[in-house]
Amino acid sequence: MLPEELKASLNKEISLSEHPRELVVDVMFALQDHYGFLSDEALEEASVLLGMTPLEMEELATFYTFIFREPVGKYVIHVCDSVICWMDGFDSIRDYLSQKLGIKMGETTPDGLFTLLPVCCIGYCDRSPAILINRKVYGPLTPEKLDIILEELRTEAG
Amino acid sequence: MYPQVLFQNRRPDRIATLEEYRTSGGYEALANVLKNFSYKDVRTVVLDALLLGRGGAAFPAGRKVMTVADDAPFPRYVVCNADEMEPGTFKDRVLIHADPHMLIEGMIIEGYSARAEKGIIFIRPEYESAARILDREVEKARVAGYLGDNILGSGYTFDIVVHRSGGRYICGEVTAQINALQGKRPNPKQPPPYATEKGLWQQPTVVHNVETLACIPHIMRNGAEWFQNLALTDTGSGTKIFCVSGKVNRPGCYELPMGIRLSEIIETHAGGMRDGAQFKACLPGGASTAFLTPEFYDIEMDFETLKKAGHRLGTGAIMVFDHKTCLVEATLNLTEFFARESCGWCTPCREGFPYLRDLLWRIEHGQGQEEYISTIMQMCHHLWNAYCAFAPGGVAPIESLLTYFKDEVYAHIREKKCPFKNSE
To answer: Taking CB atoms and an 8 Å limit, are B325 and A87 in contact across chains?
Structure first.
């Protein structure tokens, strides 16, 4: 269940909009932030909020790269695998992360902290090879830098 | 050093403040336009400046706004396309981080010229930091009286909102972006009607790229002729932000005159090729353009000269490949991008790119056969019949690989391995 406070603030925003549907991505993001991913429950709640059918919502939820219909870790690591990062050795970054976290691309660590996903060009080709962690960019990367970043995140997560 | 117009306030470590933007002449153009120009005057100046769309399509910005008919209905919209997802392109991000008010002023002036009352900045989720900057600076512009009701006492009303995308390449396509803004699945739609006639919520909508809009205050302040003269070629106009990446010493964004030679961009501005690397090819304007080979090394980089040479300037994202980089594998990577990002709406694109990727994968991994070449060419040809411009753009690197690097492709097939990999 969505907390009343969040529901009220979304409803307020929706009521102020001339075309509530334009807020659909914002609403999906808000519910995803709350639940950790866009669960079936969240998807239905989002469609009720915006007066859309769950099917219409699903059509959008499955379309966008940054909406997750399956559970993800606290930190979602998107590894850029487009052409510039490829040229600058994204595969060594990907393999190092895989090995270090003990998971393959598309998987989440058993402690629920990290998810590894591939992503298309993130627009940081001047800092390749680059990754996003919860939409924040890191680059240019080396295994040493990754060690420090992962350690910081582990500390932050307690 | 060439004149820095869009990057006049660019600093290595932080964004320019509203005060700094004003000190450099910011919002003077807006005040002057609102006082002394009719909306038609603005259109004429922008048209005369020969400002071509910087998002890759190079459509004349002045002509676009002129397709909004005088008696077109209200409300009207101006959309800033900050969905920059063309691989290798990061100029709009750098521009927003350097001087966000330039974009805001450009949008207000364009809004005035379209007689629009609302501006929307459509931005990709990877640029969350830029979106936050824009949220904050739009509010500052509002407080300063540049946005909202009765701007600077002129009677003109305009406001801007930042719209965050959920992230997909196709959202950068105008008609798909309008669907996305309306909360619909972002499939492209074939015009007519054009967005300037029936766009967002079926109302007239003018969509421009970030860099295009950022040029407008400077054009209005300094004149169309001044803007034209910034270019080094007769056919070019203005400056261009080139984002250089790949095998160069100093990858980054450089604001240079339109028409500057490719060789000068690489050698002087991007610090030359990395140690031991030789220039083999570059993509001049993102993943949807064709490889430029060494015979084009001195070409003047403007839309017209590249078009004459059978190429496209695209977004001006120059991705440089060296002699040790396998272009079959590079093209495979680019095709993977298009296979993944195809919106899936039309069959040629949805089915064609995975098929092409598969053939290129086999060639790269020593399983290629000679007849694949003609199949690939035929398939690329089919993709020209796809529903939108995504697929013809996506096959550009493949077609140019087969035109300029046929020997390299054949070497993979003959040797049954990638010649660039040592021992497999």
So the answer is: yes
